[in-house]
Input
Amino acid sequence: MTKNDLKQQVYTAIDNRADEIVGLGEQIRRHPELGFKEFKTAKLVEETFGKLGLSPKGGLALTGVRADLRGQAGDGPTFAMLGELDALVVTGHPEADATTGAAHACGHNAQIAALLGAAMGLEYRKEGSADMPEMSHGDARRNKSAIGSCHGA
Output
């Protein structure tokens, strides 16, 4: 199998679950949680990783979740993917939570949906592949020195 064949299979696996991936992002968008208080969203991420056959580790730095996906072909390159899910306090935002004022005005809901979508595509292809990525979300990044991020909590 060529590298392009592998990429196409991952893309197809993601495309086949597009509605589910968008639905996850919308679910997160409709239920914004502020930094270090993303307990419901962390549970959703953990459950989604679990449904993919991964063994998620939750409660990292309060609300972080991590799942490792390894291929079966032995040692190979490893990379990490990261998504953040904290919402911002945006007074007056049309979708802000009435109690906290939190809204996903920065797109972290889409980041998490993309992370989960990538996990779906890579999980589909793990058989016979070299080491696959480590996937983290939320504040678990504080335990990883090699991972960059966008918005901090």
Remarks:
- The longest helix spans residues 108-124.
- Residues 3-143 form a domain with the Aminopeptidase fold (CATH 3.40.630.10).
- The chain has one domain: 3-143.
- The radius of gyration is 16 Å.
